[in-house]
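Appendix C: a fully annotated inverse folding record. The material below is reproduced so that readers can follow the format used throughout the book. The structure is listed first as tokens, followed by the designed sequence.
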């Protein structure tokens, strides 16, 4: 298999785990209430409103066709017995803490991606010659016993490959991908499965004859960068298995932005439905900022229309942004000012210009600073 030359690359010394909780929000509610564990269950932004957006669903509901991005009304038409629960941020933070506490018992080299997933560098625990499956099984058992939820574990020689395979055998799966197995097991899969390859990129690649991950891995670097720029190059290296970025223990001050976005199960036309989705994103960004102990001073929204075109609007804020209400108020204002009337298939919110809270700034109301402009 062809290798991309990188003079600074170092061979991995141990396995990388990507641990991802299965249907995390739903799993937290199921762990709290035994009466709903065997029932179809969904978490939605506004359970009492038929236009509330479903954030996640348990696997019983997924087998019945319930998907993230559906509105509650459509989901209940599909599954009348569906249990719909409102999100509980404090509950998710508590379960996330329990989950990450167990991760820290296996290694101190942990890079969290979100409340429910993280990379674990196991180099200090085992080498690539050791069988990682018993360790992963032990971790799964410990999480199940102590936290009451399940995790799937992807294991490989680098971060991106580990994340790539953690979805292959959900729920409660353990998937190991060795470097010499990439050609047989990874390359035949469709290119849209590659982590970071969105629908618009996958569609453009298909028009160029790039349909599988292997097709992408064998593309000439110049051809990929010509059509897709640096993002395409990153995807091409990822497809070839070339990712040796280390597992980094994050420091809050290193972050440049915090964002959340959701792709819907179907096109959203109604403005109020778009705002509900933006509100869900605002809540997730708020939770993340709070967990980091940071505030932000610039906000952007993102949306994707049916033609796969991505649009953004951004603005600065007089006051520190951290609360869900403050973020949503600014994001919803940007959305209304956009005048967008076409159906959308994705919405997202991000907050940047991050820093620690300042007591002095508490005197200001959150709002738009017209002098800074978008």
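Designed amino acids, in order:
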């Amino acid at each position: 298999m062809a290798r991309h030359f990188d003079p600074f690359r170092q061979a991995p010394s141990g396995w990388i785990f990507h641990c991802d909780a299965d249907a995390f929000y739903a799993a937290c509610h199921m762990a709290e209430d035994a009466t709903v564990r065997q029932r179809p269950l969904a978490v939605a932004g506004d359970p009492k409103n038929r236009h509330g957006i479903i954030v996640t669903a348990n696997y019983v509901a997924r087998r019945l066709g319930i998907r993230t991005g559906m509105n509650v009304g459509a989901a209940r038409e599909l599954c009348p017995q569906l249990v719909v629960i409102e999100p509980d941020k404090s509950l998710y933070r508590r379960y996330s803490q329990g989950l990450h506490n167990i991760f820290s018992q296996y290694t101190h080299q942990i890079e969290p991606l979100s409340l429910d997933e993280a990379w674990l560098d196991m180099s200090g625990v085992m080498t690539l010659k050791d069988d990682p499956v018993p360790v992963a099984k032990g971790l799964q058992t410990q999480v199940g016993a102590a936290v009451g939820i399940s995790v799937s574990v992807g294991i490989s020689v680098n971060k991106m490959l580990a994340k790539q395979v953690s979805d292959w055998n959900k729920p409660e799966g353990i998937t190991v991908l060795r470097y010499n197995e990439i050609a047989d097991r990874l390359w035949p899969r469709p290119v849209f499965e590659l982590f970071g390859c969105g629908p618009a990129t996958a569609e453009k690649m298909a028009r160029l004859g790039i349909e599988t991950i292997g097709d992408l891995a064998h593309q000439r670097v110049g051809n990929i960068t010509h059509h897709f720029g640096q993002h395409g190059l990153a995807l091409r290296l990822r497809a070839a298995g070339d990712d040796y970025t280390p597992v980094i223990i994050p420091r809050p001050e290193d972050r440049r932005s915090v964002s959340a976005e959701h792709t819907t199960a179907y096109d959203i036309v109604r403005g109020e439905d778009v705002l509900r989705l933006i509100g869900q994103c605002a809540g997730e960004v708020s939770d993340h900022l709070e967990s980091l102990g940071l505030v932000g001073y610039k906000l952007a929204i993102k949306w994707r229309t049916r033609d796969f075109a991505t649009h953004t609007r951004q603005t600065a804020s007089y006051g520190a942004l951290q609360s869900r209400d403050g973020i949503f108020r600014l994001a919803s204002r940007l959305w209304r000012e956009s005048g967008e009337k076409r159906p959308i298939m994705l919405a997202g919110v991000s907050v940047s210009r991050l820093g620690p809270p300042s007591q002095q700034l508490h005197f200001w109301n959150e709002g738009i600073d017209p002098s800074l402009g978008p």
